[in-house]
Amino acid sequence: MPAKPLASPYAGIIPILTIALVVIAAFSIRFGAVAIDFNEIASAVAKGWSAPDSLDLVERIFVEIRLPRALACIFVGASLAMGGVLMQALFRNPIVEPGLVGTSSGAAFGASLYFVLGAVLKFHAGPWTLPIAACLGGGAATACVFLISETAAVNRESTTGLLLIGIAVNALFLSGVGFLSYIARDPQARSITFWSLGTLSGANWRAVLVLGIATTVGLVIALRYARQLNALMMGEDEALYLGVHVGRLKLAIIAVNVMIVAVATSITGIISFVGLIVPHLLRLMRGSDNRFLLIGSVFLGAILLTLADIVARLVLKPAELPIGIVTSAVGAPVFIMLLRSRRYRF
Amino acid sequence: MNRYLPIASLTLMLFGCRFKNEDRREHQQRIVCLSKQYSEILYALGAERDLVAVDLSSTYPPEIKSLPTVGYHRALSAEGIASVKPTLILHDNNVGPEHVMRQLEELKIPMKVFDAKGVDIPTAKELVSEMGRYFHREARAESLNQKLDLDMGKAFARTHAYSTKPKVLVIHFGRAMNTYLTITRASTAGKMIEWAGGQIPIPGERGMIQLSPEVIASADPDVILLTDFGYDRLGSPEQVTTLPGVDTTRAAKKRRIHRVEEHDLVYIGPRTGENVLKLQELIHAGEATR
Amino acid sequence: MQVDGPKIRQGGTRMLCVDQVTHRAGKKPLVDRVSANFESGQLNLVIGPNGAGKSTLIKLLSGQLRAEAGTIAYDSMDVRSMTYRELAKIRAVLSQNIEISFPLRVWEVVMMGRYPHFVGRPGAADERACEEVMRFFDVSDMADRDYLTLSGGEKQRVHFARVLAQIWFSVSGKSRYLFLDEPLTFLDIYYQFEFMGKLQELLKVGDLVVVGVVHDLNLAARFADSILLLHQGKVLACGSKAEVLTRENIQTAFRLEPALLRTDDGTMHLVFE
After folding, report:
1. Looking at the predicted structure, is the pLDDT value of residue A188 above 70?
2. B173 pairs with which residues across the strands?
3. Closest-CA residue of chain B to A207
4. In whole angstroms, what is the distance from residue C233 CA to residue B285 CA?
5. CB proximity list for C156: less than 8 A, separation 6 or greater
6. Mapped to the 3 state alphabet, what secondary structure does B50-115 carry?
7. Which of A330, B72, B177, B250 has the highest CB neighbour number within 10 Å of its CB?
């Protein structure tokens, strides 16, 4: 049997996912509480560049709200899904997602601190302040999980121990968020609580810029480590025998994960299950090669989150359902199916 | 209240079937009102013709429920509001999430907040006058304010006639997981109770606070007022008296448990005078005047 | 004798030299001043009771652990002077039980063995190595199957293939090193014998140094060319089967006295009652 080069069995999926993404993104910018047809979209784009002041209400809705939201959805979906791939590779366990190892809750805590104390502290870095605060929070929480697991009496190879520590750290940081929302004065409180269920409604062009940069940088760095992550699938020892510097790999992967997930969380709040479902679906499609998973997760994560956002925006029109509810409603049953599946071993 | 926001907003959304309402009238202006206080005053002034949509908590007067709604006032969506094509948005700075307001500004939809804050009787009268001027209904505004003064005058007079100041607890029950959300002295309802001649034994900075059954029991109020949502869920005063913490109170023993409409208590408006009088009767029922 | 490749030592055999290697866990030495020379082209097996330090020794030899004292030299190159990447090109380690939690095709697992040798896409040499090694270990038919659906023995054979793929070709004429850490535990006796047989075939090339830890004394008695008996971290005996597998040595190390039997073909068997 000739050994096939790693590219070929995966080659068919990516073009399909790209087409699906384009179709669904088109759907997403077309439909919403306000119906915008393609003529209006075209004129909005044309005028938006040349004469932004001449836009009418519908066109302005498209340019200021609908379009940035669609792009933010793509980047956030991609980030969360990539985070899922990275964390599952790192912990060698398919029921892990960035939320479970503290990144999302830490980011939420960092962002909440910024909302509540931001006026008090003089520190400001423009539109980057919130993502930075979230990254610091997410980094702190993930570092807690990582350091405790490395120094505790927990067997280093034990993913169960790591997950339990993650659960504990999550609880700690989420209670911090809860406390902050409890003591917060209006209007900050309105921001925190609404956002803890996850929503794309805060997306604007600045957010899209920050997200775009974080996601792209994250993808580029992660792809460099894709093969090492493959080796890690067999265990830290085996990866070492294959020449992988395991300590450095872990740090790099955790850093990338914190960056992309914290930045996304700082803008949308906590959205669960995307990082869990997407890698699982991709593995069902083709397999577990991490290079494929990373690239595929960018597309599939974007697709799924855009679909969820469409549902969130249309089901209770003109009000919006928090997107975290949609992803949980779909994600939880998939999670249960995963647990019951014989395909994986835990 | 903040913690219950997600749950409250969901519950309201699911039960607020007013999302499907459509508005087929002709309008010169298209006004969206995001404050229940303003909504009531609009109708009282007779200026509701150009109102096209309101927030979920605008529930008075009853005819307002036939209008489409754009959602809970703390969980709004810019696109959702824009979809009713408003020419003017009225709000009282009590709306969220914050970015929605920014987005509406970017969409260049005119927004108005009235200067008068309407948190006590004088400012409420100013608010009615201001809105009266804005909608060219000055005469009506004047008569509403006179009625308010008259009713409040009656209420104060009677308050001095009563010899006791009963302890009153106003409880939102069952909004979230059978908790007792109790109104404090600092809130609007608290003030109304004071005007009606009662006292609220619960201090606090916020309008509402969650209390445990023990605190309810130790407060031992003479009268308990349950808002409509919780009362209707339980069904009858007998059911209310069985609740933990409530069952040992004087109010439960003397069966002095009454139903009140939430929207009568949470803001000051043209009907506040009437409402205070009604409260007085509930609180001082059976008492002799001097 | 093999004379391919650069002459490393007198006589042309390649060697793994271990000199006074010590490694501690806390106060207790796991490996205590162990010295040995493992030659290429022969099957070197390490035996000893539980806790004797066998696993630690293999980890030291493979470069996974750094010895606190002493040196380990691959053909006079100090292990410590090589990076993980360089090491990975010339030495491979076969472990007991490798758990993979994700679905992978068999050929993907085997191809991972070639990772140290290519960046980006695998080259023609890598594909050839995988092909040959899968045929050698009789897993070619399973190449497209999901690893998780295999039996324990089949999985272990896939790992044999992967590990050997890693050192299928020698790099720059250097020796190749293969370390085995009790790899036969989950195999039934047929496959145990088969694997040992394959090892002996591989050893014929001459530039391969094999050091393996086995539990089963009779396997050692049958297949080993040289044996190192470890006891409490120290070398108790080292040399040929006859030299090491004596009643006294076994008694000291394993606290049980064996009966030594010889079958007609000359193989020694240890029997414990």
Report:
1. no
2. B180
3. B99
4. 93
5. C183, C186, C187, C191
6. HEEEECCCCCCCHHHHHCCECCCCCCCCHHHHHCCCCCEEECCCCCCCHHHHHHHHHCCCCEECCC
7. B72
B141 touches chain A (CB under 8 A): no
Type and span of the H or E element at C13: none
CATH at A105: 1.10.3470.10
Which residue does chain A place closest to B80, by CA atoms?
A: A318
Measure CB to CB from residue B107 to each of A60, A181, A318 and give the nearest one.
A60
B-chain residues near A190 (CB < 8 A): 2, 5, 74, 96-98
Tell me how many domains chain A contains: 1
Spatial contact of C34 and C238, defined as CB atoms under 8 Å apart: no
CB B185 within 8 A of CB B202: yes
Domains: count for chain B? 2
CB contact (8 A) between residue A61 and residue B6: no
Residue B127 lies in a domain: no
- Domain-embedded: residue B148: no
* Cα separation, B103 vs A207, whole angstroms: 13
Give partners of B (≥3 CB pairs < 8 A): A
Q: Which domain holds residue A154?
A: 67-340
Is A153 part of any domain? yes
**Confidence band of A158 (pLDDT split at 50, 70, 90):** low
CATH 3.40.50.12160 is right for the domain spanning C15-272? no
Q: Judge: B108–A178 Cβ closer than 8 Å, yes or no.
A: no
Identify the CATH number of the domain in which residue B59 sits.
3.40.50.1980
**Chain A, chain C: beta-carbon pairs less than 8 Å apart:** 107
Q: Pick from C86, C104, C107: which is nearest to A3 by CB?
A: C107
pLDDT band at A233; cut points 50, 70, 90:
very high
Q: Which helix (H) or strand (E) holds B212?
A: none
Residue pLDDT, tens place only, B24-65: 666 788 999 999 999 999 999 998 888 999 988 888 888 888
In this prediction the ipTM stands at 0.89
Residue count (chain B): 290
Q: What is the pTM of this model?
A: 0.83
Q: Which domain holds residue B44?
A: 7-113
Using CA atoms, how far apart are residues A228 and A222, in angstroms rounded to an integer? 10
Q: Model confidence over B171-218: pLDDT tens digits?
A: 887 665 667 888 888 888 888 888 888 888 888 777 778 788 888 888
Among the listed residues C71, C79, C142, C85, the one whose alpha carbon sits nearest the alpha carbon of residue C110: C142
Q: What is the pLDDT along chain C (273 residues), one digit of tens a residue?
A: 333 334 334 345 688 999 999 999 888 889 999 999 999 899 999 999 988 889 899 999 999 999 989 999 998 889 989 999 999 999 999 988 788 989 899 999 999 999 999 988 899 999 999 999 999 999 999 999 999 999 888 999 999 999 999 999 988 888 999 999 988 877 888 888 889 999 999 999 888 999 999 988 888 898 999 999 999 999 999 999 888 988 889 989 888 888 888 888 878 888 887
Name residue A48's amino acid. Answer: G
Between CA A269 and CA A271 the distance in angstroms is: 6
Does some domain include residue B154?
no
Residue B135 lies in a domain: no
Touch between chain C and chain B (3+ CB pairs, < 8 Å)?
no
Contact (CB, 8 A) for A111 and A89: no
Radius of gyration of chain B (CA): 20
A321–B13 CB contact, under 8 Å? yes
Q: Indicate the domain borders of chain C.
A: 15-272
| Residue among A61, A186, A318 whose CB faces B107 most closely | A61
Task: Nearest chain A residue to C114 by CA: give it.
Answer: A242
Task: Quote the minimal CA–CA distance from A317 to chain C in Å.
Answer: 41
- Taking only Cα atoms into account, the Rg of chain C, rounded to an integer number of angstroms, comes to 19
Give yes or no for B97 touching A (CB within 8 A).
Answer: yes
